[in-house]
Amino acid sequence: MPACLVQGASRGIGLEFCMYLLRGVPNITVIATCRNPGGATDLRALQAKNPSNLHIIPLDVIDESSIKQAANEVKQHNGGGVDLLINCAGILHPSGRGETSLRDVSSQKGTGAFGQHAQNKQTHAAVMANISAKVGSITDNGLGGWYSYRMSKCALNMATKNLSIELGRGRNKVICVSLHPGTVDTELSRPYHKNVPSEKLFSTERSVQYLMDIINGLTMQHTGKFYTWDGKEMLF
Ligand SMILES: NC(=O)c1ccc[n+]([C@@H]2O[C@H](COP(=O)([O-])OP(=O)(O)OC[C@H]3O[C@@H](n4cnc5c(N)ncnc54)[C@H](OP(=O)(O)O)[C@@H]3O)[C@@H](O)[C@H]2O)c1
């Protein structure tokens, strides 16, 4: 029976992944993590509809003890193994807006965003999809700005690459990829929606469908790479 772990599932793209998986895969176990299960109203409503298939575990990705506790709970639910791990949690910046220039950058704010991705303490997975962003590509950076967010996604991309090497060895190989979901209509991107043409602002349903199409076609050939929503490889 397939088991998936969606990390950062309280809302936005992570919540949509949970809905997609529960809808599409019979007998699936979805383990959804979020900072504050009590306040995750939509995720809890989804659990009420899928009481035996959806399990909610608290996890704050910038809190080491919370990561350890969540990893232990995952083991209890599923013997420690998941077939698909989606790392989704992310913030643009603690203020809600990316920095436009160097004068807006402070080390404290930067650390908050950076820390979002400085972890992957989860258990064994057959596919690990790290939800990154195009702005995390050094090659593609023609505009500058958004220091913390770009740096955090760049670090996440390096984690994808490193993990693909480490988890590509041995018998239980794991395919590790970074994925750019497009510009998606969520809280995170809300301050910038007015600058995005409507056809380029994806619903969470549309974005997750694109990303699952990519995930479903992954083989070890793809590990350690970065793909945009349309399946094109992006240079790091
Ligand atoms: N939306 C876009 O256009 C876009 C584009 C490119 C990439 N992305 C990436 O897609 C991913 C999902 O973003 P979204 O658009 O769905 O944003 P969102 O609706 O704002 O959701 C962000 C999620 O991250 C969680 N989160 C934030 N800090 C966390 C922490 N310390 N520990 C655990 N969870 C934490 C939030 O949980 P709480 O409810 O507890 O705050 C929430 O579930 C992010 O990695 C983002 O960078 C989004």
Tell me what you see in this structure.
It is globular and about 50 Å long. Residues 114-124 have low confidence and may be disordered. α1 (12-24) packs across α6 (204-216) and α4 runs parallel beside α5. β5 (124-131), α5 and β6 (175-180) form a beta-alpha-beta unit. The chain is of the alpha/beta class and 236 residues long. The chain has a single domain (3-228), classed as NAD(P)-binding Rossmann-like Domain (Rossmann fold). The chain has 6 helices and 9 strands. The strands form 2 sheets. Strands 3-2-1-4-5-6-9 form a 7-stranded parallel sheet, with helices on both faces. Strands 7-8 form a two-stranded parallel ribbon. The longest helix has 20 residues, at 147-166. The site of NADP nicotinamide-adenine-dinucleotide phosphate has 28 residues, from α1 and β7.
Mean pLDDT: 90
Q: Into which percent range does the helicity of residues fall?
A: 25-40%
**Could you tell me the radius of gyration in angstroms?**
17 Å
The name of the CATH architecture is 3-Layer(aba) Sandwich
For the sheet with most strands, the description reads: 7 strands, parallel
Number of DSSP strand runs: 9
What count of domains describes the coordinates? 1
GO cellular component, one term: cytoplasm
Pfam family, one: adh_short
InterPro entries: Fungal_SecMetab_SDRs (IPR051468), NAD(P)-bd_dom_sf (IPR036291), SDR_fam (IPR002347)
GO molecular function: oxidoreductase activity
Q: Nutshell version of this structure?
A:
The chain is about 35% helix and about 20% strand. The protein has helices at about 10-25, 40-50, 65-80, 105-115, 145-165, 205-215; strands at about 5, 30-35, 55-60, 80-85, 125-130, 175-180, 185, 200, 225-230.
